[in-house]
Amino acid sequence: MAQADNFDVSARKFHQAGLIALLVLGFLVEPALSGLGVALVVAAGTVMLVGRYWWPADIFRQFAWRVLEPRGLLKRYDAVEDHATRRVARVLGGAVLLASAPLVAVGQAWAWAVVGAIGVMILLDAAFNFCVLCEVTYRFGRLRPHAEGSAH
Amino acid sequence: MLERLLILLALAGVVLAGVQVARAVARRRTAAAIGELVPEDLRSRLPSGRAAMVYFYGPNCATCADQAHVLGNLAEEQRVAIVPVDATVERYLAGALGALTVPSTALLDGSGRVRHVNVGYHPKAILARQLAGL
């Protein structure tokens, strides 16, 4: 099992909600303001990827910690969570979003499906504590042959 | 923009429907295990006469670590034994108890009968309520 530490779950969920908002807004405004739509996808990708390694870029968490929680607008809730797997998912998701942005910019509509898939994964983790990457790992793990304990 | 708004609404509908279908399938699968004695190889690992929480986990599972901590807290506060089972290794046990995914938990009473099966991460309040109802 992965190692877990205490984390601010409220800030994590606010960060995830912020990313979803950026992607939804980008998708909605893209036909009218194509540059802005792409910029929002790039912004979401940057927050995910760069924010993982350089904390000032983690703007939604910073906003939650510096503004929302001190003013009582967001109630801090700490819990032990495994962030090792989430960080891997975050880097992968951010990279996919940044790679999709140029494709969105040149009018490849299917690139929005890729962006949407990342958005749905973030939504499932934020709303239902369902980790798609974990599920995929689990399913692959179950496909592996085992010599004992599974021969029933 | 209206067209895209409709696409988003449809996507939200598909996600919600998917969640409901997954929950219904999980309910059906776990219903068969409720009230049954657990398989003998698992029963031998249970403490006698004491409630136990079988905890199905998998490797590289973020929510499993979250669930493990909740269970650790529960075991400290209440009289329940935690029995971890790697669902990718002991697949038969996961199937027998209706653990469709990881993490999953199954609450067993002192006689080794399944009383509740929780598919997916469950917070401490729900697990504590189930324990209190034994």
Q: Write the H/E string of chain A, N to C.
A: EHHHEHHH
Helix and strand content put the structural class of chain B at alpha+beta
How many domains in all of chain B?
1
The structural domain count of chain A equals: 1
Largest sheet of chain A: 2 strands, antiparallel
Summed up:
The complex is a heterodimer of chains A (about 150) and B (about 130). With about 150 residues, chain A is mainly alpha-helical.
Walkthrough of the structure:
The complex is a heterodimer of chains A (152) and B (134). Chain A is mainly alpha-helical and 152 residues long. Chain A has one domain (5-143). Chain A has 6 helices and 2 strands; from the N terminus they run βαααβααα. Chain B has 134 residues and is of the alpha+beta class. Chain B is built from 5 helices and 4 strands; from the N terminus they run H-H-E-H-E-H-E-E-H. A 4-stranded mixed sheet of chain B has the order 2-1-3-4. Chain B is elongated, with a radius of gyration of 17 Å. The relative contact order of chain B is 0.19. Chains A and B meet through helix 1, strand 2, helix 4, helix 5 and helix 6 of A and helix 1 and helix 3 of B.
What would the keywords be for this entry?
heterodimer; A: mainly alpha; two-stranded antiparallel sheet; 2 strands; globular; B: 134 residues; alpha+beta; Glutaredoxin; 4-stranded mixed sheet; 5 helices; 4 strands; 49% helix
